[in-house]
């Protein structure tokens, strides 16, 4: 007997729906995983492996943020790329390359895994073509009341794109391309030189 399904072109065969996970399932699997994954629309998405330039820039910007913020009267906490951020209104969780929190970090869970109150978020772009994906992430960060500044850094050329929330719903974009210049984080009033961001990077 001929199986009709075997003769249906692949393009017309029904696609298997991706499995939908709960946040609890995601966190349990992520704790056991050797790789990083993000939790988007109920799906567990593997993150690409970061290369050396990406890692160097991530450390550079986090270190410079920490040094600058330590000089301010308010207390700030800077996180590395291993910190997860959770969006309660979206039920999604992602990683950033660097984060800063004012005063006390707030978490969604008792294990202090899911941060919910970053004021500054930094993403290092693996390629300039990944900008659209990071801008998509930006829309998610906007769902957090705390967020005030979003920074995109290219690793293959001097290029830093900064989005500053001047008022609710109103964001101002600044782009710095000159390696001899500095970027200004308006949300906290500190400056970081482009040379410090790109230290040890062959441009």
Folded structure, characterized:
- This protein starts with 22 loop residues before the first helix and ends in a 6-residue tail after the last helix.
- The chain is 22% helix and 31% strand.
- The strands form 4 sheets. A 6-stranded mixed sheet has the order 3-6-8-9-10-11, sandwiched between helices. The chain has a 3-stranded mixed sheet with strand order 5-4-7, with no helix packed on it.
- The protein is α+β, with helices and mostly antiparallel strands.
- A hairpin with a 2-residue loop joins strand 10 and strand 11 (170-176).
- It is globular.
Number of helices: 4
Biggest beta sheet attributes:
6 strands, mixed
Order of helices and strands: HEEHEEEEEEHEEEEEH
Distance between the termini: 65 Å
Mean pLDDT: 91
Short description:
With 203 residues, the chain is an alpha+beta fold. It has four helices and 13 strands.
What is the topology?
Elements: H1 23-32, E1 37-40, E2 43-46, H2 52-70, E3 76-79, E4 84-87, E5 92-95, E6 98-102, E7 114-115, E8 120-125, H3 131-141, E9 149-154, E10 160-167, E11 170-176, E12 182-185, E13 190-193, H4 194-197
Parallel strand pairs: 4-7, 8-9
Antiparallel strand pairs: 1-2, 3-6, 4-5, 6-8, 9-10, 10-11, 12-13
């Amino acid at each position: 007997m001929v199986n009709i399904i075997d003769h249906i072109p692949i393009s017309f065969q029904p696609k298997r729906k991706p499995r939908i996970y709960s946040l609890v399932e995601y966190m349990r699997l992520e704790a056991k995983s050797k790789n990083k994954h993000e939790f988007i629309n109920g799906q567990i998405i593997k993150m690409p492996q970061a290369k050396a330039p990406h890692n160097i820039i991530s450390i550079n910007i986090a270190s410079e943020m920490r040094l600058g913020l330590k000089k301010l009267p308010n207390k700030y906490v800077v996180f590395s790329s291993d910190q997860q951020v959770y969006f309660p209104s979206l039920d999604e969780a992602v990683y950033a390359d660097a984060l800063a929190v004012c005063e006390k970090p707030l978490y969604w869970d008792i294990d202090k895994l899911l941060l919910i109150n970053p004021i500054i978020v930094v993403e290092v772009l693996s390629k300039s073509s990944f900008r659209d994906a990071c801008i998509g992430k930006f829309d998610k960060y906007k769902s957090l009341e705390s967020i005030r500044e979003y920074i995109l850094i290219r690793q293959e050329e001097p290029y830093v794109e900064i989005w500053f929330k001047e008022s609710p719903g109103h964001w101002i974009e600044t782009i710095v391309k000159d390696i001899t210049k500095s970027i200004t984080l308006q949300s906290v009033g500190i400056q970081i030189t482009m040379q410090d961001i790109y230290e040890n990077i062959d441009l």
